[in-house]
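Supplementary Methods, section 5.1.

A reviewer requested that the exact input to the structure prediction be made available. We therefore reproduce it here, unchanged from the version used in the analyses.
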Amino acid sequence: MGSLVKSNPTSERSVADIVADVKFALELERAKIAAGDGDSSVGDPLPGAMVAAGFEDLGVYLSDKAVPTYPPYAQDEQTTVIETERRWLADEIGLYDWQRQRRYLSVLPGDHEDAPKAARARVSAEADERLAALEAGCHHSAAGCLMYLVAGRKPGWAEGK
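The structure derived from this sequence is encoded token-by-token as follows.
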């Protein structure tokens, strides 16, 4: 799923497409939780949950790692990210695991039959655009994401309490 932050191939996407992608991403996130496969957005509420569980001396850190893509895509990290996306798309895994998305949505109430088809069409078209721009040597993106590290100390843990 593309992010709200645009890259050069996605800068002209319509507001309706972006809103549809955000809606679908939220539905998938809730469905993933309902299916018992975890919560991709647990970072924000995690410090409060840790305090409620008795942790002390919390530290919250943000990742400062990005893998920007820009021509000539010669850095090892760039080629790894590009090849990974190509493989994910070809093998329908990772972000492009359409079967998993359908399975997740099946646990939600309501009719979600058309949502995966529409999202797949948008996401596949965006991926094809991005890969074509990469092949043409004209894709560029900061390629950042938000990741947290939350650490704390549980009193008595070292003593086996």
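The chain is about 45% helix and 10% strand. These observations are discussed further in the main text.
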